Amino acid sequence: MAAMGIYLCKQFLSHPGADGAQLMRDIARYTEPVRPGRQDQRNLKIKSFPGFVYRVAA
Fold first, then answer.
1. I need a surface site. Which of 8, 24, 30, 34 has the fewest CB within 10 A?
2. Three-class SS state of 58
3. In angstroms, rounded to a whole number, what is the distance separating the alpha carbons of residues 51 and 44?
4. Position 1 pLDDT exceeds 70
């Protein structure tokens, strides 16, 4: 999870005597490997902006 990684980095930076190796071990617990030969590709589509015409009073 990206959110947990960001949280761990913020905690690391806020403590001056923190151990960088421990930070890497903590982040490694939340990472997932990229699976080779995956059948389903990620469907990344840009979402369009919803119009606000429906809010216009007549």
1. 34
2. coil
3. 22
4. no
For residue 58, the model assigns a pLDDT of 53
Q: What is the pTM of this model?
A: 0.53
Contact partners, residue 21, CB within 8 Å, separation at least 6: none
**How far apart are alpha carbons 38 and 41 in whole angstroms?**
7
pLDDT tens by residue, 13-42: 999 898 999 999 999 998 887 778 777 777
Q: What single-letter amino acid sits at 57? A: A
Q: CA dist 58 to 20, 32, 36, 51, Å?
A: 61, 52, 56, 16
Distance CA 47, CA 33 (A): 27
